[in-house]
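CORE FACILITY INTAKE
Project code: CF-77B
Contact: R.S. (postdoc)
Sample description: multi-component assembly, two entities in total
Requested service: structural model of the whole complex
Turnaround: standard
Below are the sequence entries exactly as provided by the requester. Do not edit them.
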Amino acid sequence: MTQAQEIKPDIDLNQFNQVFFEECAEHLAEMEQILLALSNEEPDEEKLNAIFRAAHSIKGGAGIFGFQDMTVVTHVLESLLDRIRNHEIPFNAAMIDLFLEAGDVINMQLAGHRDDAGVNQDAVVRISRKLQQLIDSSDVRCERSDAVISVSSPSSDGSVPVLHRYELVFTPDPDIFRRGVRIEQLFRELQELGELSINAGLSSFPDLAGFDPETCTICWSFNLVSPASETVIRDIFEFVADEGQLKIRETSLAVANPDAETLGEATEESVEVSGKAASPALMGNRAYDRNELAPGAYGRRAGETESTLRVGVNKVDQLINQVGELVITQLMVSQSASALDPVQYENLHRSLQQLERTTRDLQQSVMSIRLVPISIVFSRFPRMVRELAAKLGKQVELKTVGDTTELDKGLIEKITDPLTHLVRNCLDHALEIPEERIAAGKERSGTITLRASQTGGRIVIDVIDDGAGLNRARILAKAAERGIPVSDAMSDEEVWQLIFSPGFSTADAVTDISGRGVGMDVVLRNVQSIGGRVQILSEPGQGTRVTISLPLTLAILDGLSVAVGDEKFIIPLNSIIESLQPAAGCLKTVNGKNVVHVRGDYIPIIPLHELFNLPARVTEADKGILVLIDVEGEKAAVLVDALLDEHQVVIKSIETNYRKVDGTAGATILGDGRVALILDVGSLLLMHKSG
Amino acid sequence: MNGVTSQLPHLVEQLATLSACGINMEGMGDSKAHLAELTLAGINEFDASGCQLLVIFLKNLKQRGVMPRIMSIPDAIREKIQFLGFAREIGPYFETKQGYV
């Protein structure tokens, strides 16, 4: 008989928890975004509704999923917001910081459940108390706040709460057990409102044979004496009772008598609670949800709920992988069919062409599912900039451009930390305090611009500040101190690259923001790990621009297949400038290295067969083909036997299936079923340089 | 399905068989055969779904002429049954020192 609904070992609750975690994080982000946009101004009704809705949804979700600790702060926050939007408590700018702090605490609790991170209970108590104090400090007596007043205690203004007597009938959905709804918690919340008696009965009497114990046939009736309004009661049932499943009747007139025992003697006059609540169309809904649910309400698009579907990333990845396999299979079929007579098998060839087009379209469509706007990353910075700027005594304006630029979800996750480092550096080191800016003839307020765009098959993200710019002399001095070989003849570009050295920092003081020299090398490493590049441009007194360039996706790549001996390699198309067959006269040797002379430039030659230790048909550059590549503005010529074909290849991790191979960014399966390594031109150049 | 829920259909089947036994016991002339003792000793968890199943089982037994009696009910389970509002449906079958409540 131990049939514990709450334990439910046959259902993986984690998958549902995950949905809650994601939604909660989204609500918190939305709340923060709106709060930051307020800029100390009083929010309009729509914005207040949106903040309220976010807090309310978090509380509801936390209750349903059994994270009761998360309902504590959200409950008080919700109560306060409700009173503000009802103009019972005036809004003031200090509340923005308080709400942001509350959001942080909820976020911390979320992380506690999601990542087993530590939760500072003192912070929870502190913020709950602060929020409650704001409610308590209000002189306005408000019935809505009854939910936080115990039955017997008088309200803060000394008046006695108005008590109501309700009869509730709750006929839940037959699948309420299956949904894992915590009925006990529901009843406990109801119990907290006042005196409660509960009675359960079966709405039907099923025979045991064939009975499904997870089908609910129970109908509960409650008697509740409470100062709470009907809205507060409906609020508790909001996520479990649909229209008509919860009926509430106020069975006696409200009394303002502190002697609760007189309640039983109250007039047994049956009164419908109110005109609006009596409306059958609104049964089970919160009164104030009506406008919020309207299409076009703040942050809500018409038909949004119907037009989106939340799908696990694993499922999407599985789909992408399967489509990748389909593309490879299609290539194999096409390759096999290419041997067939095009006239005799004209229809087959035409169909195969159509298949190829459709497969490519399918692949593009599937890939686009993983694309998410970079605003997901950008949206975290306004808060950070606001707080750090205040801490540093600086005035900073953050601008974001190209928020809708889409990039792969995997890239988003990996780019967040590097961007955070860069923005913190801008705040701490680059931007000057207002006095210094004025002395330098600049505006008091500095600007940080985050700009994203899609350029030439890559995603380019710029972090631009109008601060003091990098100090060349100081960087050189620090580098020399650290034993890094430097010279005054180094170009600016080479000097700026020094700040990517591990542990490099020119900051005089180590702050809790930056200056420990553990930033830029991590930035570079993280960006390079996803096939990206980092470039720096800086002008003394004018500012600095750090440009991160990333591949569009981590799953497919346009490449040129080349042959070296019996092996085939893929060179990413976006790094290829041109290919040429050099005349013997263009080939030189400089410092023991072979170079090719192309239009005035001496370009180093990278013989692939040497790097990968392969028996090649061509070992002399003038007998083979040179593929000119561009790596961060640096050119190189890759020597190959022959150019084969242009492909869009599906990238497979070689590390997962084999081991890391230097000079490669992965592998792919070609149409003939063979594996070809995809060259990482950046590391290829480094390998060549290091000899 | 696995765990507790996977065992539920089997449990329901067994309860159905058990309650159907009441029919066979009827008319046997043995008044003791009309009593069924059900022990809840060792039960740690009980929820609304469990309460519902118990109520249906008890009603099925009663309909077949068997008077059920619930024995060794842990305090926590008794409180849970009351809290969930099933006191009226299940309470009459609780064993007490004085008999049934």
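Facility notes:
- The longest strand of chain B covers residues 35-39.
- Chain B has one domain: 28-100.
Invoice: internal transfer
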